[in-house]
Amino acid sequence: MNQKAVRLVIDGKEVSAQEGDTILKVATENGIYIPTMCYLEGLSTLGGCRLCLVETKGSARLFPACATPVSDGMEIVTNSEKLMKYRKTVIELLLSERTHICSVCVANGSCELQEMATKLGVDHVGVAREWTGYEIDSSHERFVLDPNRCILCTRCIRVCDEIEGVHTLDLMMRGKNSQIIIDLNEPWRSSHSCTSCSKCSAVCPVGAIYTKDKPVSETKKKDLPEFVMERRRR
Fold first, then answer.
1. pTM, to two decimals
2. What is the Cα Rg of the chain in Å?
């Protein structure tokens, strides 16, 4: 069935799209930047980090661009003082919820959270920080899982489930106390489902999952990972 064409305005620019496309997709296709963190093209949409919030005319609510479909006549603002304030707050909260110290992190210089903080001008955290002390799982011969640096974007879970198809990774607990676990919360070395494919470490935006004895810059993929591209071609 053919999709219906719609017209809308983003940041004063009139654009066309297909009904069902998300605001993020349409904006990206038209060269309009919207910051994201939990989103990764080729994976299912979570809409959890709320970094991609945008304004729409006629509504006092803010909408996640990654999960909101466009409609005919929609007028969208992606960059405003209000949105900048919200996005800075999101980054501050992410930095405050776990032990994020860039100078001693393996992902220093190759971290999307660090990069986004710099881009948005977040140079300090104005809320009380929690210095977590979760156990680090370095039992796997190749990989390390450090929950203290996790931002709960679930990219690793989604790529493990949707691309590799084994669902080794999952979440336990709720809210900010959530943690990524291996199988039924077992040491990584004990996992019978893990294929050691390294996809989880490739899509992790921070230093929560990384490959041992390799610079993070070599294992983190800034662009769309090839294995996600392959899924899209099928």
1. 0.91
2. 19
